[in-house]
Predict the structure.
Amino acid sequence: MGASFTTVGWHQGRVRLIDQRQLPDKVVYLDCADYRDVAEAIRNLSVRGAPAIGITAAMGLALGAQSLAGRDPSRFQEDLTRIADELAATRPTAVNLFWALDRMKRVASSHRHLGVDVLIRQLVDESQAILDEDIAMNRAMGAIGATFIESGDTVLTHCNAGALATGGYGTALGVIRAAWEDGKKIRVIADETRPVLQGARLTAWELMQDAIPVTLITDNMAGALMRAGKIQRCIVGADRIAANGDVANKIGTYSVAVLAHHHAIPFYVAAPTSTLDLSIPSGAHIPIEARNPREVTHIRDVAHVAPEGVAVDNPAFDVTPADLITAIITEKGAFRPRDIHRLGGDPASLTAYRLA
Ligand code: MRU
């Protein structure tokens, strides 16, 4: 099952993005020829979702490198770092952004002896490798995660952790896709995900493209559906996972996890290892992005739904503590959250801790 759209990729020397602000009304692509356009696309949510942000930033840095052709090698490294810093300043929470930029900078500094022209080519290739590897990780995660889903299940998801949030296939929606491809008769409940409506606009649209049965609810309906026995599992993506298994994800994820715990419903997180931040001990260290109050006072920037001048709080993410999470599904296996730090160690020692 391949998506009928491309989230992000190289197209005729430019970085092509599906403009997610316009979905589901219009399928429009943005072609970025300058790294500043890429930075703006990340900032304004034309492209969003942790892995997709990382891939896009990597491609943006490769575009930036192309604009430095002809520089002497040490100026090239300096200017590349400056461009990477600009791209890194676009959004603070998803660690995939910093992970991808660090990986690109490592390529540039470890091959500095090869000369600027060769380096530019290598940076373009590396950004493509980050995209290709992301899709492969999603497919591996899908196969592992599908084993936790049974035919007949109704699965709730929050925000959009699908092909639109990644290089393709998706993390949480990748698991759902894999279960569906295995022939399991499942249904999806998509939380609308206020304020930006990633669930209503993106998840519902993406699943309908693949004819996977999806029902849309407002965020405040999940508890009643759980109590009525209408939800068997929850699965979400992640923007950053700390060493103790705490997970930052779209605002509202924590509420879903508390509700799932109360109703004894398994709550899974699906994320590639590029979303791990083992340098921080717990979720308390994850920077939470505060976004424009207009996202709350308006719907889709047009319908005003609050009194002029009202005070607004708009944190874009929350942290779900590890003890509310049944398992974290990665491309290397599924793990209890408390064991996730082991992914930073010897791969051979992982076997004992894998759930699937
Ligand atoms: O603000 P967004 O739309 O970038 O937030 C996206 C999320 O929180 C996703 O759930 C997360 O990035 C996982 S994507 C595979």
